[in-house]
Design a protein that fits this description.
Order of helices and strands: HHEEEEEHEHEHE
Strand order of the largest sheet: 5-4-8-6-7
Distance between the termini: 84 Å
Largest sheet: 5 strands, mixed
Radius of gyration: 29 Å
Number of helices: 5
Helix content: 25-40%
Shape: globular
Mean pLDDT: 79
Structural class: alpha/beta
Low-confidence stretches: 1-19, 45-54
Amino acid sequence: MAPLRLLGPALGWRLAAAARPVYLSRPPQRGHRLTPSDDELYQKTTIQHLEKESQDIMYIEGYSERGFNISGNKVVGPCAVLPRAILQWNVGTHKDITAESLVLFRLLEPRIEILVLGTGSKVERLDPTVLKLMRQCGIAVEVQDTPNACATFNFLTSERRMTAAGLIPPHGVTRG
């Protein structure tokens, strides 16, 4: 047992000695600062474009009380904007947003991360049980007025997030 005790500290000291940094010259001093050389100061910055924007991404370009302009397509009435498709959404007001009307978003593959709901010209409260059901399915729900929902959808889509939107046209508001 005694030889093991002597061997243990010896190994520990060897490992500790090996972990210490080895300096070929003198160690860095506290006042040492790295400064760019003259060549680095006068070099031009170049940017190389690695990937072009995908034409398949949906962007909401405008809205009115009649409908939406999405990626160059005019859509009349409420719509569901999916990552690669636009569908008519069979709701009239925020009161029609139920678990049944949101089943489409739960069935999507690949699964969406965030569902942005635009409830018209102002934010409306939705049934908490419907929102809880979506959370249990792993989908975060963001409820906003439609103008802000459009901007949020565009932002999340530009970040390449798996996002969908359910939008009701706002009354008395036009953009684009």
